[in-house]
Write a structure and sequence with these properties.
- There is one protein chain.
- This protein is of the alpha/beta class.
- The chain is 37% helix and 15% strand.
- It contains eight helices and eight strands, in the order H-H-E-E-E-H-E-H-E-H-E-H-E-H-E-H.
- Strands 1-2-4-3-5-6-7-8 form an eight-stranded mixed beta sheet, sandwiched between helices.
């Protein structure tokens, strides 16, 4: 008897149409207007940053704080904090800021009773690898030493979306290997992250869904040139750059969230399997026909994904 590997519940099949319709809306939102994508690298980055900045909404609950020399947005719950969630925003390692997640992080602090520290790490191409990762590690190291005194709890969680998922995984590995403090983190929320900077089949266009994605085949070459100048794709397949190639032993429970229309689908599929193979608790949550960034848009599968993330964070911090 052959049993099909089920990556999502059967009830999700009835939600595909909404996901595909929302994907088209998202694609239209992120499609460049006017003369299209600038050909000059720096102008292209500036144009993309302007587009991302237009989506930022500051929450009055957030406070700007400098932690270990790195600017951060900090949220404190109105009740004693159950833990501290170290958050990294998305943006392909070269776009965005913590303000992208300000409202969501304020809500997370209120709902789950977590303090949230969202890191404004340095961006490529002005600051290529490893500058952003160094900033993330600096804040993590500070929390390892000072979380209890500053937030009333020493229970640490980490997570992020897209590039933020990448930095979360990389930071966990560096905390373990460079600080000897991997056991201080109790969970990792890794949302459609990139873990192989050398590229997976899906990043080359081999996806199980033809739903339009906000990422495209051109995205990865451009990001690679900005973030890893002078590195070939093969040279990026080392643990210090691509977490997929690292020894993944002795890491905390992790939840991997991704959609089948995402060009980063394989990164989560591969990483979740390897996370488990090294003896860690690994949960894989796959959502049919959902694109990169889907959790930030109003549709049922995004609601289901965010509820599962909340449940995971509540469980691992307890």
């Amino acid at each position: 008897m052959v049993t099909r590997m089920a990556l999502w519940p059967d009830e999700y099949e009835g939600l595909r149409d909404e996901a595909r319709a929302m994907a088209q809306t998202i694609s239209d939102l992120f499609t460049p207007g006017g003369d299209g994508v600038p050909t000059d690298r720096d102008e292209r980055v500036r144009a993309q940053r302007r587009m991302m900045a237009a989506l930022e909404v500051a929450s009055p609950a957030g406070v700007d704080e400098d932690i270990a020399g790195v600017p951060c947005r900090v949220f404190r719950p109105t009740v004693p904090a159950r833990g501290v969630y170290l958050h990294f925003h998305g943006g392909a390692m070269m776009l965005g800021s913590p303000l992208m997640n300000d409202v969501a992080n304020a809500d997370l602090a209120d709902r789950l009773g977590l303090a949230v520290v969202s890191v404004d790490y340095r961006l490529a191409p002005e600051h290529p690898f490893p500058a952003g990762s160094d900033d993330c590690l600096a804040v993590a190291a500070w929390l390892v030493e000072h979380a209890e005194a500053s937030f009333g709890t020493d229970r640490l969680l980490v997570g992020g979306e897209s590039a933020g998922g990448y930095f979360a995984a990389l930071t966990l590995l560096r905390v373990r290997d460079e600080l000897g403090a991997g056991d201080r983190f109790h969970g990792a929320n890794l949302v459609f992250g990139v873990y192989d900077l050398g590229g997976t089949p899906a990043t080359h266009g081999f996806r199980p869904s033809d739903t339009p994605d906000i990422l495209d085949l051109d995205t990865f070459g451009f990001v690679h040139g900005c973030y890893l100048p002078g590195h070939t794709r093969e040279a990026a397949r080392v643990p210090s750059i691509s977490p997929l190639y690292a020894d993944l032993g002795d890491l905390p429970p992790a939840l991997f969230t991704v959609g089948t229309a995402d060009h980063l689908l394989d990164d989560s599929l591969f990483m979740a399997a390897r996370w488990a193979a090294y003896g860690n608790e690994s949960e894989l949550a796959v959502y049919p026909d959902c694109v990169h960034g889907f959790t930030g848009f109003p549709m049922e599968l995004a609601k289901r994904a965010n509820e599962r993330i909340d449940d995971f964070l509540s469980r691992v911090v307890a």
